[in-house]
Amino acid sequence: MQVVLIKVIRNKITSQPKGYGFVEFNSHAAAERVLQTYNGTQMPGTEQTLRLNWASFGIGERRPDARPEHSIFVGDLAPDVTDYLLQETFRTQYPSVRGAKVVTDPNTGRSKGYGFVKFADEMERNRAMSEMNGVYCSTRQMRISAATPKKTTGFQQQYAAARGFYWKPGPQCHRRGTEANIFAVWGNYLCEDPHIKRMWASAEEAIQWMQGTMIGQQAVHLSWGRSPTAKQHLNWNPKLIAAFSCACKWFDDVAKRVLWKEFCKARAPKMMLDLQSSGSHSVDGNWRALGKLLIYCPGCTKGGLFNNIHIHGHFVYRTRFSRTSGKSFLLLQCRTDVLYVSDPCEHLDQGEEGDVGFFRGVFKSFAMSKVRKMLISRGAKFNPTEVCPYCKAKLWSMLQAKMVPQSASCRLGSYEDAIEYYVCLNGHVLGICTLLPLSDSEASELE
């Protein structure tokens, strides 16, 4: 055995081994003997099994005898299946098999339940796909499909050309407990935050794992793609986005950076365009807080912000936010500020004097607003116990600061002395008012 060079691949930042490496021999025959002798054996001094395969490239250059390879994807593998066992399962039937690889978790070393087999002969690869599907390997029947070919342009070019992948669902893909639920958050399109490059590998793994899976009577078809109209197909369900965020930290990051932002744009496109027109790619607070503000009325509890009543929070799916209405909530000297305020959601017979209305709002660039400067100059105090229900920031009472104009009650249709609202450090607005009752003529028209 003549070893020419050994190279262990290490992390460029931590210098810790990544768990794999390359060994170069002085001849192909020597490498072949080592592969046949040691593949699948236990590594000395450890409990791990040696997994040996032909390298696609040598250390620094391509093998001179490199030939085209044709691969298949093999799923539903038992935990005890090794590279060697998978390879020999196919090699006994197809002499052109050049190697096999069982994909393992890099942290635990355990099999992920799927792998790949390479063939030198395309005809044998095609035969294997039909003849070996359902055949046992160890204790389980294999599920076989075509492997997505690797690109030759390098990781960065693949990533730039593939921001997401498409899923074409069948007619029976909406039942609970099926693989379709994996993609429920995204609808028909799975997009990816370009700043989180680690998820590219997860997307590729999802393609390999789910490709060809049967859901009902329909096979799943996945492919890389990018479309300027892809966002039109997204299913912006806030509850599913929230559930997606709870899966893990990486999913939560994607939800914060991408999903809630796109949700806000889809829910109130003109308002979002205006809020970002100052050149910022973000909003005060965060996108998740703004998304919640758009669709959720937090209600109130006795002893809280509006301490005389108790009303449960609830979703408000149809709400209009108006910049014109917002001006009515500002003193004359502050009306160059931009404030969007919602129509009040009514709670009938909840207040001491009749119907109660809750309204929500948001300032544009609140940190630079005249309202904020006036609150500070007037020495306004923060509420000592309550915080913003959307972003958890501290709250100023506009009523205590004497900054609620009469025009606000006129706009809402409420009593002049029965309106109160708060604004937080991030410019989120939450208010309550007692609504004026309808006149007899108006009431009769509605009956």
Automatic annotation (TrEMBL):
BP GO annotations: mRNA processing
Residue spans crossing the bilayer: none
Main location: cytoplasm
Gene Ontology molecular function: any one: mRNA binding
GO cellular component: cytosol; nucleus
Domain RRM: from-to ranges: 1-57, 70-149
Location of the protein in the cell: Cytoplasmic granule; Nucleus
Entry superkingdom: Eukaryota
Pfam families: RRM_1
InterPro entries for this protein: Nucleotide-bd_a/b_plait_sf, RBD_domain_sf, RBM42_RBP45_47-like, RRM_dom
Keywords: mRNA processing, Nucleus, Repeat, RNA-binding
Subunit structure: Interacts with the poly(A) tail of mRNA in nucleus.
Family indicated by similarity: Belongs to the polyadenylate-binding RBP47 family.
Its job: Heterogeneous nuclear ribonucleoprotein (hnRNP)-protein binding the poly(A) tail of mRNA and probably involved in some steps of pre-mRNA maturation.
Protein name in UniProt: RRM domain-containing protein
Provenance organism: Camellia sinensis (Tea plant)
Organism taxonomic ancestry: Eukaryota, Viridiplantae, Streptophyta, Embryophyta, Tracheophyta
